[in-house]
Amino acid sequence: MKKIFLLCALAVLYSFSGAQNVITGVITNQNNEPLDKATMFIPELNIGCISDQNGYYILNNVPKGKVKIKFSHLGYSNLIESLILKGGGVELNVMLKESVIETEEIVVSGGYNSTQHENAVKIDVLKINKKNMITPNFSEALTKVSGVDMISKGNGVSKPVIRGLSMNDILILNNGVRFENYQYSSHHPLGIDEFGIEDVEIIKGPASLLYGSDAIGGVINFIKERPASVGKFEGDYNLQLFSNSLGMVNNLGLKASTEKLYGGIRIGHKTNADYLEGGGDVVKNSRFNEYSIKANTGYRGKKGLFKLFYDYNNQNLGLVEEDAIESIQTRGRTNSIFYERLKTHLLSSQNKVYLGKFKMDFNAAYQNTELVHFGEEDVYEIQMQLGTLTYETRLYLPSDINSEYIIGFQGFNQTNENINNRETRLLPDATTNNYSGFGMFQHTFHKKLKLQAGGRYDNKTISAENLNVVIQNSDLNKNYGSVSGSIGATYNFSETVLLRANFASAFRTPNLAELTSNGPHEAIYELGNNTLAPEKSYEWDISTHLHKQYFTFDIAGFYNIVNDYIFLSPTGYETSQGLNIYRYIQQNSELYGGEAGIHFHPQQLKWLHCETKYSTVIGVQNNGDYLPFIPADKVSFELRAEKQKLIFFNNAYASFIINHAFKQNKPSPEETATNDYTLLNATLGASIATKNNNILICIGINNLTDEKYIDHLSTLKEVNLHNPGRNFILSVTVPFGNK
């Protein structure tokens, strides 16, 4: 018996240890010339290296198993290679092709560590850099992705919209962790800032298979910046100034890395006064202030990868409503009356363990968000606290270059608590529990056809105290069981032409606000409805991608049937205080539309880029009424010039962007139609070489003509106020360290 136990123990130890893998090679261009400072990076392991002047690279201490490696260099197409490491040394020499158009990325939000072209549903990747962050509103930066829009209440309060779905129909992930911060309301913010974010991955369409309830309309995953290069200490200071809101943004980041250990910290601060609408009038109480701290540490070795993250965010956001406009006499930036404050702590642990031919993810996180609504100075109207524990285990079964198999378990436990006995109890004290299991696979046939499929089951319970909600006067106890799944395929007609098709079923259970709300919230009185059924979605997606050296073309269409779609609707009644009463109802509905985009680079003008995007969506109820918060059709055109060397500037660029929104003449019964508008934006940027680093400078102008307009998704329509007018932006980034 002792011998058997000893043999089992030795087998387990062997599976954990394994031989160390070393990956070496040379990176060259298509003329067989070595590429200096090319990057080799493995996203799954958060580790990489840079080639020397001979194009040579070496990466030590890589665990056994299947990995995807991204090779990149400025001015060249990304190259993604798959390897199965079995121990020992591997030589991988690669050639990068010259290209002025960005190509596919490795993405992590689709369940597999795969490339964009390998997913049956396209995952868009938005790089968070100075070219994209010339706005004080982080959600506005996301709208550069076709099919993504935003509901806004000025610069400080905004929420993303994907193909007409928003709020609880969109799942927000903070570096893969389900983010919970009372996102049910259009008057609540996104809750995540851009500090320390490197990429944003966006799934357009149902993703319940991977993430469960609330992913019915799509997923937005904010991915943190990669660690410092091995053996390096890196840092940067960033400053942004905005003329329209007299805004200032600061953030400072520090990080360092050894071969096995790494860590970093980033501190950020935002302050903005009341903004000016088109024409120069002040929008009173649109001020907002925010600060955050983000820290991380990690260990990587042959046995696995272990990461720990801590995020703290404090937002103070003015609420533009009639009482505030009447009470505030002068422009300012200090929040003192009629504002909301959200404080969020998020601690997460993400771990990957290698077990021979298997690998396993163990992830857990705890998040606590406190929401306070202030009326008059120091008067607490609402004070609630939401605590959420999430956990997940994924087992990656033995696979080869052509296949992946995953099974997993997920769960979250959540409590909502009213604290300090405030005047209004909009939501009751409640407990929510969710447990789910899923399985998925993908397989490639004949190097051209890739099939993806999977299924999932969720069980969710919600229990809450009675708040005298209409229909039923008792405590709430709900239990929901939901099945979802998807099947899709990608087919490569050639190296440059790709076709995607996917069918997915998804679900969303009613949330606490929809079931139990009973109180004043912003400028209305909200009533829940505890007879609501879960939303069920059935969506078909089809898209085509064409990629040439100087040209890319994408077109996608979707048709989404949402049974029992839940939304807030006016009842036609008022409270004794004069507040309009709104109640959550549901209707069978349909959403359909698509996106198209062209990126063209004239072969004779290597410095010039032309890019056009178009998106459209229609949302209609079965009774013929249109759905609320459906964006207008939009088209954008960007003309961008880039020059790697210009006098004493490096990587200089200039862009001119035209954004046009068409009339939205299909509003829901409680909305009004919105006129069309056109915005002009311009940007200039470059880096200036210093002894050790490059200082990045960017100057921009948004709404160049000071257009006075109201976007259809602006909730400031309620008080007849317009979106921001002309805004001059200055952005400076100063890197430092032994990079």
- Measured between the Cα atoms of the first and last residue, the distance is 56 Å
Shape: globular
Count of separate DSSP helical elements: 5
| Poorly predicted parts | 1-19, 469-473
Decide which structural class fits the backbone: mainly beta
CATH class of the largest domain equals Mainly Beta
Describe this structure in words.
The protein is mostly beta strands and 739 residues long. The chain has two domains: 2-99, Carboxypeptidase-like, regulatory domain (Immunoglobulin-like, Sandwich); 123-737, TonB-dependent receptor, beta-barrel domain (Maltoporin, Chain A), CATH 2.40.170. 5% of the residues lie in helices and 57% in strands. The strands form six sheets. It has a 22-stranded antiparallel β-barrel. Strands 11-17-18-15-16 form a five-stranded mixed β-sheet, with no helix packed on it. Strands 1, 4, 7 and 8 form a four-stranded mixed β-sheet that branches. Strand 9 and strand 10 (114-115) form a beta hairpin. It is globular, with a radius of gyration of 26 Å.
Keywords:
22-stranded antiparallel beta barrel; Immunoglobulin-like; disordered N terminus; mainly beta; Maltoporin, Chain A; 57% strand; five-stranded mixed β-sheet; 739 residues
